[in-house]
Write a structure and sequence with these properties.
The protein is α+β, with helices and mostly antiparallel strands and 308 residues long. It folds into two domains: 121 residues, no CATH class; 105 residues, Sandwich (Immunoglobulin-like). Helix content is 44%, strand content 19%. The chain contains five helices and eight strands. Strands 1-2-3-6 form a four-stranded antiparallel beta sheet, with helices on one face. Strands 5-4-7-8 form a four-stranded antiparallel beta sheet, with no helix packed on it. A hairpin with a 3-residue loop joins β4 and β5. The longest helix has 70 residues.
Length: 308
């Protein structure tokens, strides 16, 4: 899978490409974008020219005097040795006649005036000065190129750091989402187990009149987990809530308070240890918000524990 690079990401990587610091995959993506983007192509050409000027940053240094003398002595010794070998092989030494002076360059006359330097002109730059000027200009251009490439490389590194930070933040977010979903799956599995296990007992609950609220309680005696579902419950009055009760022979135990949803449905889950044979009934009453230690309001739903 190829990850596309945005225009800004490519621009940040142009300096590294000019220095040859990109790897194969990233370099291919950058060059693919540059091929179709005039602005990036022009900027990359400028950066490559700047990289070429970096070679001028190192000034010319003449050979050290000691090295120069050593090289010169070696050359003279080799030339002397070569001359001696030739003299030993030849019995006659032939001296070379001096080369004739070409007619185009006649010897100077005795009464000729000495040559005078050409007058200086403000619009003409002497050769030596021009060379010195070009050398200085090359040094300035090389320094500017180095600074430009340094800035480009810094921008590229900063862009990479932002990408890494964004990926780390995204990874953290995904890990939190994964944990949340895992918790929901675990809760769902626990709910399914509490509704369908072999040790689950079901208590049907109904109102006194038909078409009134209905409810059903699932009691998992193995895990002591209670799951209550209700339907068609009317909305509670201000400052009031429904309260769920577990009824035994000698007491009524609160299993929590709740308010139904917009359609009158509600789900209540609780955990409470209770001997399997001690439960006689479950009931729902309307109580003040926060609940009461014992039922005080009218019974809205009730269901007797089955003897089976």
């Amino acid at each position: 899978m190829t990850i596309e690079m945005t225009h800004d990401e490519v621009r940040e990587a142009l300096g590294a490409e000019a220095l040859g610091a990109l790897d194969g995959g990233e370099r291919e993506r950058v060059l693919a974008h540059v091929a179709g983007c005039d602005a990036c192509r022009a900027e990359l050409d400028a950066l490559r020219e700047a990289a070429a000027l970096v070679a001028h940053v190192a000034p010319h240094r003449p050979l050290a005097p000691a090295r120069t003398a050593d090289v010169r002595s070696r050359l003279l010794a080799r030339a002397a040795a070569d001359g001696v070998s030739r003299a030993s092989q030849d019995d006659v030494t032939i001296e070379a006649a001096p080369a004739p002076i070409p007619a185009a360059f006649p010897p100077p006359r005795a009464d000729a005036e000495p040559a005078r330097a050409a007058p200086s002109r403000p619009d003409v730059t002497p050769i030596t000065s021009a060379r010195r000027g070009r050398g200085a200009m090359a040094g300035w251009l090389a320094a500017a190129a180095s600074l430009l490439l340094l800035i480009a490389a810094g921008v590229y590194a900063s862009g990479l750091r932002r990408q890494v930070d964004a990926l780390q933040a995204r990874a953290t977010q995904l890990e939190a989402e994964r944990t949340r979903l895992a918790d929901r799956v675990q809760q769902g599995e626990a709910t399914v187990a509490s509704l369908s296990g072999p040790a689950v007992k079901v208590i049907e609950m109904a109102a006194a009149r038909p078409a009134d609220p209905t409810g059903r309680m699932f009691w998992d005696t193995r895990t002591a987990r209670w799951t209550f579902f209700a339907h068609n419950l009317p909305a509670t009055r201000p400052g009031r809530e429904y309260q769920l009760w577990l009824v035994t022979a000698d007491r009524k135990i609160s299993a929590g308070t709740f308010r139904p949803g917009p359609r009158g449905s509600a789900v209540v889950q609780a955990e409470y240890e209770l001997p399997p044979g001690s439960l006689q009934a479950v009931a729902v009453t309307e109580e003040p918000a926060g609940g009461q230690p014992q039922p005080t309001g009218a019974i809205v739903l009730a269901g007797a524990m089955s003897t089976r």
